[in-house]
Amino acid sequence: MERIGEILTAINDVVWGVPLIVLLMGTGLILTARVKVLQFRHLGRALKYMMKNEEGGEGEVSSFGALCTALAATIGTGNIVGVAGAVTVGGPGALFWMVVAACLGMATKYAEGLLAIKYRKIESDGHILGGPFYYIENGMGRRWRWLAKMFAFFGTFAGLLGIGTMTQVNGIAGAVKTVFDPKGEHIAFSIGKIDYSWATVIVAVVVTIGVALVVIGGIQRIASVTMVVVPFMAVMYVLVCIIILVYHAAAIPAAVVEIVRSAFGLDAAVGGAVGAVILAMQKGVGRGIFSNEAGLGSAPIAAAAAQTHEPVRQGLVTMTGTFIDTIIICTMTGLTLMVTGAYQMFELEGVDITSYAFQNGLPWNPAVGSLILMLALAFFAFTTILGWDYYSEKCLEYLVNGRMGAVKVFRWVYILAVLIGPFLTVSAVWTFAEILNGLMALPNLIALIALSGVVAAETKSYFDREREGKLRE
Description:
Layout lengths: L1 H14 L2 H17 L3 H4 L1 H9 L11 H12 L2 H14 L2 H26 L2 E2 L5 E2 L2 H9 L4 H17 L4 H15 L6 E5 L2 E4 H18 L2 H30 L4 H12 L9 H20 L6 H5 L7 H30 L10 H11 L4 H34 L4 H17 L5 H25 L1 H16 L6
Antiparallel strand pairs: 1-2, 3-4
Helix pairs in contact: 1-20, 2-7, 2-20, 4-16, 5-12, 5-16, 5-18, 6-14, 6-16, 6-17, 7-13, 7-14, 7-16, 8-9, 8-20, 9-18, 9-20, 10-11, 10-18, 10-20, 11-18, 11-19, 12-16, 12-18, 16-17, 17-18, 18-19
């Protein structure tokens, strides 16, 4: 098992090496320039559109429902476990690069949402399929269909074996075990030298049943659940982080200084400064993309189902996902880890790092902090599992040319993957998920660069029509 972990780490280092980081950041820069820093100029408008659904547009769910489905898939273990991993491995500077990547990623997400609506496929019965595979095929041309197939292939397995199932349920199991069986005294069974507690077994069964009951209902049922759970849990989590930060307000200035110093390798010896910066960027950008999925190509699959006839409007709504996910929630988590000293607890792993911050950061009994984190992680991760089931099903639907029989079989295999997720080791699961994310991002980023002119033209047309009073809103 240790050998497998070493192999996965080596592959991950190649996939998430400097070239992919440059491509991700470069794509964000190109799109930011093409839309003239729209993500900052029109953030207020985007937040207003997020709360006000468009009337009369074609689609399967409201714009807010599509956003909540996308947020369900993004707000999960990446915000809690992923940030902890980035800061402990890449140093506090990883948080800085995570936010920088998110600022550029908002332009990337905007372009993804816009293109998803422009090139989506609407069947006569109202069924919708859209996302990178269609804006690659229909936007770049059929000769690029192989690139669309590549994205769909990696997207299917990213959901099934990576970000969608195993990392999420693994995080839930870890949080529940920390609360109810922190010493691992209640063992259900052992595999080799690894003991599994009853808490882990119960989580596996309960989450699997919950996922099965929702995903069988399709996008409407997924959206109806996420529209309630995601906003409530996001607000609750942010409020708890604010309480910790207020309680440790005196430590915030030093934490911010440390984050900036670490981001530029100022704390490292002269010879290791460059390596420290690259490591901070690698972990910050990598885990940031794992969290907000900007450039990954997943969010446009949900955006394509939105009831809208304006690609630009949906692009604006889509980009708010990155703002909420990373610039707000991940930043809150990172600062919480810093002011409580949790980021220096190198003997801890995964959710235990953030759990330490909540236990020691809140002015209450440590058990309260563990319970709050467990609930937040459980609901975030659960909704992420739901969102990624939809993504991976749509990717498979494209791969098999719409044969729904194969999609229905896949749905049950996906549910099975949720069941076995808690029994895999944390590091191997996260590494494999990151590899699949990187491979999935490559075709999408190529398409975004190729279609950046379309994004710019659609954006100009929208605001020109707005000034002339010709918008259909």
